[in-house]
Amino acid sequence: MQNVIGIDAGGTLTKLAYINEQNEMDFEIFPSNDFSKVKNWLENHPHIEEIGLTGGRTKQLLNVLKTMKSIQYLVEFEATFKGVKYLLNKNGYDIENAIISNIGTGTSIHYMEGYSHIRVGGTGIGGGTLTGLSTIMTGVSDFNEITSNAALGSRENIDLFVKDIFQGMEPPIEGHLTASNFGNVSILKDTKYETNDLLATIQGLVGEVITTLSIQFAEEKKANEIIYIGSTLTNNDHLKEVISNYTILKKHKPVFLDDCGFTGAIGALLNKVEQSHITQP
Ligand SMILES: Nc1ncnc2c1ncn2[C@@H]1O[C@H](COP(=O)(O)OP(=O)(O)OP(=O)(O)O)[C@@H](O)[C@H]1O
Ligand SMILES: [Mg+2]
């Protein structure tokens, strides 16, 4: 199995999953706007002979790789589902039906039941929105800088909470719920906005839109758990907290998996291994 690799060429990031010399699954990430880095990596690992591929930029990657290696393509949703099943199993989860929200560049939402799955919807609000809005509004474009600074920020003066509207009254819904993301800006005029506060508020917007939609599908499908995956959650405890708090408030169970950015690459790897076993005597 060490001669096989799974590659997920996503909208923003290309993820690699492979088995290292210690016989453990290992991962690499490259930006999808520079496939020569993936090509170099493969050239530096000549023992890899078989590639499982998935992701929307598969064709663009193949145009750069021009490889003679044995390739097996798997559609993205299948690869992601295979990867999710693998990670659930590895982490000891026994979940029969759940919503899977894949927060990639955009967000794709799926319903899984046993070994079957369907796409139920999605939104253009995702990791690309987080980095895009952060760049335009604060000048901070580095993902790790965005997430670590967001964790230090406060949403208080930028978001409008239910309690801000119902001052001195008993609100009809929980007071700390967001009434309007960024809604305080037009009310508290001429306030100076700190970078960290803006970043925290952008994460709030992205996380709450995704959670709201995921909860609606969970209720429609009568699923208790919502499994949130995608590289947008990598080292992003602040976003996980936004998502987790809101999901729990709405009486559903959020599930976060380690290595959740690599589900597509893991699925492509596992699929290639299975195919090789079928085709090779
Ligand atoms: N090192 C990084 N560089 C840039 N973005 C990162 C990085 N790590 C995490 N991210 C975040 O992850 C997001 C991409 O997530 P992911 O890799 O799951 O999507 P994708 O597969 O590229 O896109 P899609 O599935 O929508 O085609 C980025 O938009 C960004 O918010
Ligand atoms: Mg993806």
Automatic annotation (TrEMBL):
Nucleotide-binding among keywords: yes
InterPro entries for the chain: ATPase_NBD, Type_II_PanK, Type_II_PanK_bac
Example of a GO MF term: pantothenate kinase activity
Uppermost EC category: transferase
Name of the protein: Type II pantothenate kinase
EC numbers for this chain: 2.7.1.33
Organism expressing this protein natively: Lysinibacillus halotolerans
Keyword list, A-Z: ATP-binding, Coenzyme A biosynthesis, Cytoplasm, Kinase, Nucleotide-binding, Transferase
Domain of life where this protein originates: Bacteria
